[in-house]
Predict the 3D structure of the following.
Amino acid sequence: MRIGLGTYAYFWRKEHWGIADMLRATAERGIRLFQICDDERVAALDVAGLRGLRALADDLGIALELGTRGVDPVHLTRYLDLAGALDAPLVRSMVPRDGGAAGAEPLLRAVLPAFEDGGVALALETYEQLPTRDLVALVETIASPALGICLDPANCVAALEDPADVIATCAPYVRDIHVKDAAFSRRDGWVGFTYSGAPAGTGQIPLDAVIAVAPDAARIVEHWLPWQGDAATTASLEEDWTTATLDYLKEHSP
């Protein structure tokens, strides 16, 4: 099983840390895969900056993946170029609500031949703004060997989708996995619920089923950790949640 950390494992620290800081922290944990996800600083790097980042990752023994949002061909081509410079075999993206799957199809068809030629996978993430059935139908219709799904069933609960159904529906097309737990809790006065992150194994996401899907896909650790009132406490708990998720993955590996 390939286990990695992603930018969202350092969500509350990323504004104060550079990408290099996150890579070093990942290496200190003995993890050899990092997904630079929704961090536009990577797209701002020039050729020398990209070479330096790749050299640092090589020195630390870390493989890289990339993550962005959108399906605009120009934007995705930029990320394909970044993937080539950083030797990243996968780019995760998300289909925007505007246009949905129907609007995304011609845009993806325009750019996917370049991904195929470059040997880079494009993994579209499951999330609440696009029904899972529409995402799967999009992947099936395009039928590109470079196109797959980034599985994150916790996202889809906001659209009242059952995580177990999301996992089963996406299973044949999963190329990447975001691993995080989440749970509902009653709000004060019992007026509604809060849906938020939880330490791995304590929430309501069927993590065992998540872990068991697509053996060749990377498992990228993420969190939905609420702010704890101050930076030091929040960062400390972020580290604890990372440890809990890594321990859970190791203990429950197929």
